[in-house]
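User: Hey, my collaborator sent me this sequence without any context and asked if I could get a structure. I don't really work with proteins. Can you help?
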Amino acid sequence: MEVVIRNHEHQCGATAADIVADAITSGAATLGLATGSSPLSVYRELIRRHRKEGLSFAGAQAFLLDEYVGLPPSHPQSYAHVIRTEFTDHIDIDSERVHSPNGVANDIFAAAEEYDALIRDSGPVDVQLLGIGGNGHIGFNEPGSSLRSRTRVKTLTEQTRRDNARFFAGIDEVPRHVITQGLGTICDARHLVLIATGGHKAEAIAAAVEGPLTASCPASVLQLHPHVTVVVDEAAAGQLKNADFYRYALKYKPPQQKY
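Assistant: No problem. I've predicted the 3D structure and written it out in structure-token form, which is a compact way to encode the shape of the chain:
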């Protein structure tokens, strides 16, 4: 695992965008996309590079991490809609190749299994973007999730619903259930890139990066993956015991070694 500490959110977004852009120009065909506030700086920078520098996503496909149960793709807060609004409508990726779980399927449990199979048959995902919740969740794998879990239906904690209520008219509008890629599904990706900013993420980042491997902090499963880049600002790095070493390692990184 490589931990990259930047001064502010814009630098974090640029670093994560560097990783995605390098993968795309090197022939990566499958991207994993996250929603929420953390990846927005990445998407803004990738859109800029597409418009100003000719970065093309025409040959790529993408898979979303999760979707609310009960929200159709046309709903403003469905993740299928959010990812189009924030990213994919602004680049040259084929909209038919941007995949998301079907949260309005008649059988949501079968839909979860079908989505997992689609990722398996189309993948592996070359670069998977991730955010992290204050309780250490990635995707919507809440504390207690199996570290080998596959795509499935999950019940959100009340804390997660409160955290997401700002995107809705109120907490009563936030669905209680989601379809989410499991931790095992996420870890099938070749390269995991987690981005987090702000002091409110510091405890979760420290637990994920330096704490014990435990289902109580689902993001700690990243410690088992062979290729992980964690990009954080100074505030989110505030509780990392080995922060000075991470800065030192980045400063003296061999020039030919990529993230």
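In plain terms: The chain has a mean pLDDT of 97. You can pass these tokens on to your collaborator as they are.
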